[in-house]
Design goal:
130 residues, alpha/beta, 5 helices
């Protein structure tokens, strides 16, 4: 299964048997685990979006144009599944905030027929946000 999550909860994910996989432009200090850079936003337009406070629609269009549309979704799905039985794709934003990992989840659902959900930990029990 593939989940999404955020770096601040990495230890909780590991305690729950998930394999963290970074898809952000950088990882927290000391992280030496798995990454999948093909899903990382391009830094220059990410910075432009971030600094100029551009819209989520602008970001989404750029992300699709420069990242997702140049990838083959079934290949990405296969490569991610080879990284572990239960992986969690990580970046920095909390679940309720706009983030590229949510775009990745939707893209994998639509293009590779995978049910990718945010992994929510509550009282050390897995709860999936639907």
């Amino acid at each position: 299964m593939i989940y999404t999550g955020y770096w601040a909860k990495i230890h909780d994910y590991e305690l729950n048997g998930l394999t963290p996989v970074g898809i952000s432009g950088w990882s927290p200090d000391g992280y030496t685990g798995k990454t999948y850079k093909k899903l990382t936003p391009k830094y220059l337009w990410w910075k432009e979006w971030h600094d100029k406070k551009l819209s989520e629609q602008w970001y989404t269009e750029k992300y699709y144009e420069t990242v997702l549309n140049v990838l083959k979704p079934l290949d990405v799905a296969k490569q991610l599944q080879q990284m572990g039985d239960n992986i969690v794709l990580l970046c920095f934003e909390t679940p309720e905030k706009f983030c590229h990992r949510h775009l990745v989840a939707q893209w994998l659902k639509e293009k590779a027929n995978l049910d990718v959900r945010e992994y929510i930990i509550k009282n050390q029990q897995m709860q999936m946000k639907i």
